[in-house]
Specification:
Radius of gyration: 16 Å
Number of domains: 1
Order of helices and strands: HHHEE
Shape: globular
Number of helices: 3
Helix content: 25-40%
Largest sheet: 2 strands, antiparallel
Distance between the termini: 18 Å
Strand content: 5-15%
Mean pLDDT: 80
Length: 124
Amino acid sequence: PAASSSTDDFPGLKDFLADMEKSGKDELGRENLNGDAMNPWLTVRAFGEVAKDLKDVNKNTVMQGFENAKALDMAGLVPAWTPSAVEPFGIFQRVSNSMMYRMTFDGDVVITDPVQYDLRNPTA
């Protein structure tokens, strides 16, 4: 699950929403967005964090950049991410961020708890 639409609980959403608004596209208006829209934005954010210090951007330097990256800033929407900090988790052999949000379903209402939990230790 993704963060809720509350910029109070998830201040990092302000950057995401500002970028979506800058696009000028109706389909990227706040009323048309869902949690899935944030995933590609976070991907591009991570790429930008890695690529900003590269002198030459190509497949090899970007891959090396991700392998060397430590604590990439993910706007607080997910914990700072170190792509190479991989711990196999069940069938997922390349998991490097096992943090998730809890959601409570009540009819049409979905509440996302802003406190993340680790899939490796879901009872904590």
